[in-house]
Amino acid sequence: MTPPEQTSLDQQFAFLKEIDQLKSVVRKSPLLNQSRRENSAEHSWHLAMYALVLQDSAPAGVDINRVIKMLLLHDIVEIDAGDHPIHAHVDMAAIAAAEQAAAERIFALLPTPQGESLKALWQEFEAAQSADARFAKALDRLQPMVHNLETNGGTWNEFNVGFERINERYLPIIQSGAEGLGQYLLARLKRFFNKSDA
């Protein structure tokens, strides 16, 4: 009979092997040097670094360690469900169902208590009700926005997206989770689009 701890290790390594596939999920956002598009694993790592570096911009009471965990986990479901750019025309209900099914499958690879705990963090991020989740969501919107600003419009050019749509889709979520970051990005956005009141 396999010792229980060995069974747990087998499950944990199966999960770690499975999530390696996130490196193959290609996003629309380019790297800042524009040599290629980033993958979802790189995006998750970069967001965790955003949380670490920008933690002073988080509202009082935010647990940055929980935020980092959420950001490392938030796109794991893309292994099954794929990445769907914010400006693409997609069936959001179908995507949500596919992501939920992916979460059930992937987190179930882990020992049950650990898998349920990590799935709960993923669900908290998705719901965006807690201060931790709102800050994590803000960073998830902020990072691609910064990439587009730094690459002279990046995917905004590709999807023919202007100031009003960006302001509507990015800023409310950023400001909800980190008001100061939202104000900073709004000023940069106005300068980028040559808005007179920037």
TrEMBL record:
The UniProt keyword set, sorted, is:
Hydrolase, Metal-binding
HD domain residues are 19-178
UniProt xrefs under Gene3D superfamilies: Hypothetical protein af1432 (1.10.3210.10)
Q: Which Pfam families match?
A: HD_3
The highest taxon in the source lineage is Bacteria
Gene Ontology molecular-function annotations: 5'-deoxynucleotidase activity; metal ion binding
The record's GO CC annotations read: cytoplasm
Q: What is this protein called?
A: HD domain-containing protein
What species was this sequence derived from? Maribrevibacterium harenarium
